[in-house]
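Kindly inspect this chain:
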Amino acid sequence: MLQQTQVATVIPYFERFLARFPSLPLLAEAHEDEVLALWSGLGYYSRARNLHAAARIVAEKHGGQFPAALDDISRLPGVGRSTAAAVAALAFGQRCAILDGNVKRVLARHGGISGWTGDKKIEAALWQLAEARLPAASIEAYTQGMMDLGASICSRNQPACHRCPVSADCIAHTRHRTAELPTPRPKKVLPEKQIQMLLLIDRGEIFLEKRPARGIWGGLWSLPELDFNADPVAHCLLHFGVGTLEQQPWAQLAHSFTHFKLEIQATRLHPATRPPAQPGQIWLSKASALDAALPAPIRKLVLMTEHA
């Protein structure tokens, strides 16, 4: 959950998740929809699917015991080099280097490494530095200390260098370069995409479709989607085999992803007859829909249905 998400945002999700899945076997046995529902609103849903898949692998291939070997940890879905090393170091005391966002910032400043840390060459240089500075002992304390140093003292803005235990030989500090290191990510204009979504309501229930496993909102429930300029009535006839009694532009919503901006035009329709739910489709009341695994923007639209 902490990958690409801040601690303050994660805490309530983490507490709800552990309350429902207090053990690995319970998570491994759960249906993916329930896992995604508890993740709904955190974004980057591939993390939830990978976590679920990893739990099943640990249960099936490792007898329910989390593997201690770095190579076995690295083979779990969604576990990258730094995450595997962090688990190996903190849980099993193995001498492994980590390189999360906080540690990248500490090393870039202390070592005076210029360049965007997401660049492959810069990242390779940071990995070399991270491995070269590993202590011979107390790897658990060192690993936790590096993460805490970046999170609490060597912050992105206004780092507390006067409190830093390694400021005396920090290149960024001694050369007054803390504001410029690490080098910011190159700015680029995000492309924009426009789509139309259909709000089909019948007898107080909302029609939802399951998203493909790959792509944005993979595996989550969502409103039917079509091209921005497509005819929603024709879409209903073609895909659901029903006509509509009413059609009305209803709501507009903007949502930003890492790589693009999305503009949603929601159109409300009342079907003349209820189309039967095929596999991957479902009719749910508003309350049940809000308990399902919905992307954050779709959740907002469902919450707005009382005004539709």
Notes: The first helix runs from residue 7 to 20.
